Amino acid sequence: MFSMAQRFFCSKKQPFNFYSQEYVFSEENIKRTAAKFSSMKPIRLHTHQPAKRAAVLIPLCEVNGKVSLLYTLRASHLKNHRGQVSFPGGMQDVGDKSLEDTALRETKEELGLHPDNIDLWGSGNLIVTKGETCVLPVIGRLIKPLTVSKLQTNPTEVEEVFTVTLEELCNPDLLGYTQFRDRSSIPVFLGGKRRIWGLTALITNMCLSALLPSKAYSHKIKYVPSVKVKETKFVST
Fold first, then answer.
1. Would you say residue 7 lies in a domain?
2. CB-CB contact of 8 with 91 (8 Å)
3. Core-most of 11, 94, 107, 141, by most CB within 10 Å?
4. Residue 150 burial (CB count, 10 A)
5. CA distances from 221 to 38, 175, 235 (A)
6. Residue 216 covered by a domain
7. Do 46 and 130 form a contact (C-beta atoms < 8 A)?
8. Residue 111: which CATH number?
9. How far is CA 60 from the centre of its chain?
10. Any residues with CB less than 8 A from the CB of 232 and at least 6 apart, and which?
11. Which contiguous run of DSSP H or E holds residue 122?
12. DSSP category for residue 116
């Protein structure tokens, strides 16, 4: 039996749009995305396993008829990660039944989005950060079309909210990576209102890799070795 993508490829009417709501939000793709996301290799940015737990929601949403991802800019007065692009989320509370509940609770506190308006697809593996926290990424879809200006944003935590379409996130001309001296590299996304890098970029890359086939999203992150200058000995005459 043909998959949805295969059926569209067999059609000669028009090329298939992998970024469309019809494909991304199809039952077939939701199941495939959840399965692939949960089976991805865990990311470890540190050797030890921190005891603290946190969770973030990767909010898929519909904005002006296009599938997008929602991002926040953390308030500049916060103690940790201030002024950074992130997904809604935070530390696990004692009252949270699970880390998925943590992601939903934090999203409500930051953006005023009620859990009933979010369809959770699934979660990945815990990411061991360079700090003292493990972070669980959770994928969910905002059920209703989103108007950013109507969000009840909490100014004590969030300075700005913006969305980036899948087309912009997957545009190969707007993809890059940052290489560090310890030989690690992380993806960078330049298609939206703000540059997306760091842990948020790593999670974005994971999400898109699970959500879309390689023909629609393929971010090649290469390591470029540093140039070593050979010393030249000069002999005086």
1. no
2. no
3. 107
4. 8
5. 22, 9, 44
6. no
7. yes
8. 3.90.79.10
9. 10
10. none
11. strand 118-123
12. G
Q: Name the 3-class secondary structure at 218.
A: coil
Residue with token string 């997957």: 170
Number of domains, the chain: 1
Amino acid residing at 158: V
Q: Say how far apart CA 123 and CA 53 lie, in whole Å.
A: 14
Beta strand 52-63 pairing with 133-142 = parallel
The DSSP element (H or E) to which 108 belongs, if any, is helix 99-111
Residue 143: predicted pLDDT: 96
> Which domain range does residue 133 map to?
18-164
pLDDT of residue 223: 53
Q: Is residue 37 part of a domain?
A: yes
∠208-158-49 over CA atoms, to 5°? 60
Please report whether residue 5 resides in a domain: no
Query: Whole-angstrom Cα distance, residue 211 to residue 203?
Result: 12
Which two three-digit tokens encode residue 52?
Answer: 């603290």
CA–CA gap between residue 43 and residue 206 (Å, rounded)? 10
Rounded average pLDDT per 10-residue block, the chain, 237 residues: 51 75 97 97 79 95 97 70 80 95 97 97 91 92 96 91 96 86 79 89 96 92 53 49
